[in-house]
Each structure stands twice: as structure tokens, then as C-alpha cells.
Specification:
With about 150 residues, this protein is mostly helical. The chain has helices spanning about 5-30, 40-65, 70-75, 85-90, 95-125, 130-150. This is DUF305 domain-containing protein.
Length: about 150
């Protein structure tokens, strides 16, 4: 583990990886559906692709830092805007306009509620590359939330 890394960094990796994975999974449901709206599909693709790239990097750091136990401990948490398995299963059964609307609603909440945790990483993390990534996450997800608000109208 780099000398500059601290407990905030470890906690952030452990919480953010499963949080991102749920956003990836939610996006996949939409992309595998009959939702035809090209703007919503484009948004889902960008969320999936961006969060997959970030997860690959965060998982690489976790592996290099040998924090498997911390990653496993946090992997089952449902927090910071994540949805429960029951809500996810209901969401995954939707189609068409219902799925489109629910995707925008759930993803907006998913993004909005994780920003405080991400800001904590920016403010208190020790590992500069991870702090930088967290700052970029806030920028991207804030812009995506504005886009979701426009698409929901």
C-alpha cells in the first residue's frame, strides 16, 4: 500500500466498487431492454462504460494494496443510494416507458446519494490518484444527474 494511502482510501474503494457495479448492472438492464430512446440508451452506455473503467482501476489498486478482506467486508453493503435486491429485481422486470422512467429515477438517486461519500474521499483521502478520480466522479455524475433531470421531463 502506498505510504500516502489512508483508511479513507481503503473505505472508499470498498464502498465504491460495489456501488459502481450496481450502476453497471442497472445500465445493462436498460441496454438489454426494448427501451428505444436513444438519449437514455446513450446515457446508460456512458454510465456503464465509465464506471467499468473506474472499477477496473479501483480493483487494480485494491489488489496491489492487498486489501481483499476490506473489499469483501464492504461488498455486501447496500448504502449511499444503492437499491435493495428486491427493488433491483422489480426494476429488472420492467419494460418500455416504465423501465425508462424507473432507470432515470433510480440512477439519479444512486448518483445523488453517493456524492457525499465521494466528496469525503476528495477531502480526506491520502492517495492523490484516487482523490483525483473521486473529483472526476463528482463532476461526471453531477452532469449526468442534470441530464437525467432533462430526460425525465
Amino acid at each position: 500500500m502506498p505510504a500516502s494511502a489512508n483508511d479513507t482510501d481503503v473505505h472508499f474503494l470498498g464502498m465504491m466498487v460495489p456501488h459502481h457495479q450496481q450502476a453497471i448492472d442497472m445500465s445493462e438492464v436498460l441496454l438489454d431492454s426494448d427501451v428505444a430512446d436513444p438519449d437514455v440508451r446513450d446515457l446508460a452506455e456512458r454510465i456503464r462504460d465509465g464506471q467499468e473503467r473506474e472499477n477496473a482501476q479501483m480493483n487494480q489498486w485494491a489488489q496491489e494494496w492487498e486489501i481483499d478482506e476490506d473489499m469483501e467486508r464492504h461488498s455486501h453493503h447496500i448504502a449511499n443510494g444503492m437499491i435493495s435486491p428486491g427493488v433491483f429485481n422489480t426494476y429488472a422486470q420492467l419494460e418500455g416507458e416504465e423501465l425508462r422512467a424507473r432507470f432515470l429515477e433510480l440512477m439519479h438517486r444512486h448518483h445523488a446519494e453517493v456524492i457525499a461519500m465521494t466528496q469525503d474521499q476528495v477531502d480526506n483521502g491520502g492517495y492523490e490518484p484516487l482523490r483525483d478520480m473521486a473529483g472526476q466522479m463528482i463532476e461526471v455524475q453531477t452532469a449526468e444527474m442534470r441530464e437525467m433531470e432533462e430526460l425525465a421531463r
